[in-house]
From TrEMBL:
Name this protein carries in UniProt: Putative inorganic phosphate transporter 1-7-like protein
Residues covered by the Major facilitator superfamily (MFS) profile domain: 24-502
GO biological process, one term: phosphate ion transport
Organism in which the protein naturally occurs: Trifolium pratense
Keywords: Membrane, Phosphate transport, Symport, Transmembrane, Transmembrane helix, Transport
Membrane-crossing segments per the record: 20-49, 69-88, 100-119, 125-143, 164-193, 213-231, 344-361, 367-386, 398-417, 437-458, 479-498
GO molecular function (one): phosphate transmembrane transporter activity
Pfam family, one: Sugar_tr
Length: 535
């Protein structure tokens, strides 16, 4: 039999949706807005960086980043994120969610600004300083994953918890959208002010000196939304679940939540010290080992597909003709066209997908949404890959983009959102942030495989047609087939993850049973002590 839940936790579980839920979504969500803006805006300006810093006199095509530099600029933030997820995830369970929450945000603000101020005039110094700041930016972003998810899950009520956590994650969609729209505005304004011929007409004058400001402005603006929510983050009380279950201070938990919920909550006696098992102990592996394998593997597999798509997005657009050949544009026009294409995809598929999850996650459940997402991603990947030659014809471009958008839609109305929600619900409070950090770090590992593995794999099989400096790959068609297989694996590993819909966090993590077991043992020992043997 499970022990009765603490009054303060029960009050949170049955609370009606209130204003504080929405402020928590905004405060936690702004971190994700910045995360998405910062991680994705770099893909808008990589072509521009190539033109500015790697121009080759007399070349038929504009300068582009050499493969190793491109991989470093795009990938160094992922390395930082992975490290940050593990480190801050662990720290959030050790020190408390609130203490660590402000740190991650401050890091994001400082490093966003630092990225834009990357100093030096030689390509090497600019790229090294940019990579340095982007690594630490990623480190801060990494901390935001486990902390935002854990804080939101511990603040939420039972009925709408899935939607609240998903809404925090869905702010990513707005971040991507904001990055695209801002890049469109900045590039359009610069293009109007500094008229330049296309590369084919005049290679030197096609990149005006002022273009160097564009990427810096785009990268730095990511700091604004994060800076605006810093004060609110420092004022949030620690979550009641951390205070009561980990810090074992039920009086403070009751006092904090009485203020937040604006109801009177009685402080209960301190809980007896439960015989708690450690992370990765035999007991942990017995209870949650498969769950952790499930959350980490599905996130890993999803991100391989998700990030590989995102990074060869601009190449797909060029292939189907949405972005004209580089030499027919000047540097600023190219930024405008890439940003426009990314914004259209975000508007039509990325943003709606996220909010579909928010709307349906507590009705359909996490498990079904994740299965459905992986299933349709597989279907659409194969639909793009098998008749790939058909899609490359000019007349069929719109169909290609529609299927491509649907793949994105079902990633977001599917595993991209659910893999974020579930690890924040199914582990005990004392490991919740750590386990979420481990799962999301597995995801970032997948993102690296997707981003870099497929940067090389998607190259043309014919060495003469590959991008400058890259070896021949397996081609886009075979890359898409491979991604279809990855999605099938994601579908299968989803069966390891339990359904948390409508259940309390303590019910999911087994903490009520733990407490109950401890109480029974204590009662047993008291009764044994009372039975005095007769001489």
């Amino acid at each position: 039999m499970a022990k009765e839940q603490m009054q303060v936790l029960n009050a949170l579980d049955v609370a009606k949706t209130q204003w504080y839920h929405f402020t928590a979504i905004i405060i936690a969500g702004m971190g994700f807005f910045t995360d998405a803006y910062d991680l994705f805006c770099i893909s808008l300006v990589t072509k521009l960086l190539g033109r500015i810093y790697y121009h080759v006199d007399g070349a038929a095509k504009p300068g582009s980043l050499p493969p190793n530099v491109s991989a470093a600029v795009n990938g160094v933030a992922f390395c930082g994120t992975l490290t940050g997820q593990l480190f801050f995830g662990w720290l959030g369970d050790k020190l408390g969610r609130k203490k660590v929450y402000g740190m991650t945000l401050m890091m994001m603000v400082i490093c966003s600004v630092g990225s834009g101020l990357s100093f030096g005039h030689t390509p090497k110094t600019v790229m090294v300083t940019l990579c340095f700041f982007r690594f630490w930016l990623g480190f801060g972003i990494g901390g935001d994953y486990p902390l935002s998810a854990t804080i939101m899950s511990e603040y939420s009520n039972k009925k709408t918890r899935g939607a609240f956590i998903a809404a925090v994650f869905a702010m990513q969609g707005f971040g991507i959208l904001a990055g695209g729209i801002f890049a469109i505005i900045v590039s359009a304004a610069f293009n109007a002010m500094y008229d330049a011929p296309s590369y084919a007409v005049d290679p030197i004058r096609s990149t005006v000196p002022q273009a160097d400001y564009i990427w810096r402005i785009i990268v730095m603006v990511g700091a604004l939304p994060a800076a605006m929510t810093y004060y609110s983050r420092t004022k949030m009380p620690e979550t009641a679940r951390y205070t009561a279950l980990v810090a074992k201070n039920t009086a403070k938990a009751a006092a904090d939540m009485s203020k937040v919920l604006q109801v009177e909550i009685q402080a209960e006696p301190e809980p007896e010290k439960a015989k708690s098992y450690g992370l990765f102990s035999k007991e942990f592996l017995h209870r949650h080992g498969l769950h952790l394998l499930g959350t980490a593997s599905t996130w890993f597999l999803l991100d391989i597909a998700f990030y590989s798509q995102n990074l060869f997005q601009k190449d797909i657009f060029s292939a189907v003709g949405w972005i004209p050949a580089a030499q027919t544009m000047n540097a600023i026009e190219e930024v405008y066209k890439i940003a426009r294409a990314q914004t259209l995809i975000a508007l039509c598929s990325t943003v709606p997908g996220y909010w579909f999850t928010v709307a349906f996650i507590d009705r359909i459940g996490r498990f079904k949404i994740q299965l459905m997402g992986f299933f349709f991603m597989t279907v659409f990947m194969f639909a793009l890959a098998i008749p790939y030659d058909y899609w490359t014809h000019k007349d069929h471009r719109i169909g290609f983009v529609a299927l491509y958008s649907l793949t994105f839609f079902f990633a977001n109305f599917g595993p991209n959102a659910t893999t974020f929600v579930v690890p924040a619900e199914i582990f005990p409070a004392r490991f919740r942030s750590t386990c979420h950090g481990i799962s999301s770090a597995a995801g970032k590992l997948g993102a690296m495989v997707g981003a870099f593995g497929f940067l090389y794999l998607a190259q043309n099989k014919d060495k003469t047609k590959t991008d400058a400096g890259y070896p021949a790959g397996i081609g886009v068609k075979n890359s898409l087939l491979l991604l279809g297989v990855v999605n099938i694996l994601g579908f299968l590993f989803t069966f390891l993850v339990p359904e948390a819909n409508g259940k309390s966090l303590e019910e999911m993590s087994g903490e009520n049973e733990e407490e109950a077991g401890t109480s029974r043992e204590l009662e047993q020992s008291h009764s044994n002590n009372r039975t005095v043997p007769v001489a």
